[in-house]
Design brief:
single chain, TIM Barrel, 7-stranded parallel beta sheet, disordered N terminus, DeoC, lyase, EC 4.1.2.4
């Protein structure tokens, strides 16, 4: 029997639709040009060193493959705590993200380190499952020790205009999270327009999201600068309207230090310095970590490390 404490409350579909479609339209060309202009900013060497360490501290180191094993997860957790074993001053990453059945392995490996454990849930990456299955997935991950849950919205429902269903499911998953934070994945590559990205961002925040996240990393395009710009504007405006701060996580397609720093500039210039913290901004980009470490080593030694110096994840 369904648990009445976690069943969705029925949202006013007409009122929600009126609100979302009443949001200001996004100037797509303007968003693209502003994102490109901010991405072209030059960073001085001293600022670059600080930006690299900040970016490392914002990484969610992730493994979400069918072939994941406890050994692979433990190795990833070791890297999360000490990204460069030869240089203790390198900060730990923000969190590791795994499937629900690997949460207990990650929790055990990271106990006492300060690195968080996140888990995808709600029929990741498709989001196509009955609500009770999504809630059971969430509860299992939280019970195993996950401090963060990454859920995916039902894009089919959103694109067909059933905003109330999407909102109600987010709210129900949020209740099932208990003390865990909820990151809501919009899968922006399937939303087609920046107007939809803005609407999905506001919908998720109103329904209780602690973070809004661009992508699962399983489809292309994943994170882009214009999409992230629109999401940062949304969290900025949402805090101004409600007083509640919500985080942002671009995920997928961020592969180089240059890419990561572009996102940090975007955060600072759009939402503001209040979001320049792992508490409010994350990079879902495991592949970028090695490049950040290589660039950090280059700044301190003047030479690049060999391509096999850091572990491959």
């Amino acid at each position: 029997m369904a648990d009445p404490t976690t069943l969705p409350k029925k949202t006013d579909q007409q009122g929600l639709r009126a609100f979302l479609h009443g949001l200001p339209a996004v100037d797509q060309t303007g968003a693209q040009e502003r994102a490109a202009r901010l991405a072209s900013r030059s960073i001085k060497t001293s600022a670059k060193a600080a930006a690299i360490d900040l970016a490392i501290s914002m990484v969610d180191l992730t493994t979400l493959e069918g072939a994941d094993t406890p050994g692979k997860v433990r190795a990833m957790c070791a890297k999360a705590v000490r990204p460069d074993p030869a240089v203790p001053s390198v900060p730990a990453v923000a969190a590791v993200c795994v499937y629900p059945d690997m949460v207990d392995v990650a929790v055990d490996a990271l106990r006492g380190t300060g690195v968080g454990v996140a888990s995808v849930a709600t029929a990741f990456p498709s989001g196509r499952a009955p609500l009770e299955a999504k809630l059971a997935d969430t509860r299992a991950a939280v019970a195993a020790g996950a401090a963060e849950i990454d859920m995916v919205i039902d894009r089919g429902a959103f694109l067909s205009g059933d905003y109330a269903k999407v909102s109600d499911e987010i709210a129900a998953v949020k209740r099932a999270c208990g003390p865990a934070h909820l990151k809501v994945i919009l899968e922006t590559g399937e939303l087609a327009t920046l107007d939809n990205v803005r609407r999905a961002s506001w919908l998720a925040m109103r329904a209780g999201a602690d973070f809004i996240k661009t992508s699962t990393g399983k489809i292309s395009p994943a994170a882009t600068l214009p999409v992230t710009l629109v999401m940062l504007e949304a969290v900025r405006d949402y805090r101004a309207a409600t007083g509640r701060q919500v985080g942002v996580k671009p995920a997928g397609g961020i592969r180089t230090t240059k890419d990561a720093i572009k996102y940090l500039v975007l955060v600072n210039e759009t939402a503001g310095a209040d979001w320049l913290s792992p508490d409010w901004f994350r990079l879902g980009a495991s592949s970028v970590l090695n490049d950040l470490l290589m660039q950090r080593r280059k700044l301190s030694t003047g030479v690049y490390s060999g391509p096999d110096y850091f572990t491959l994840d």
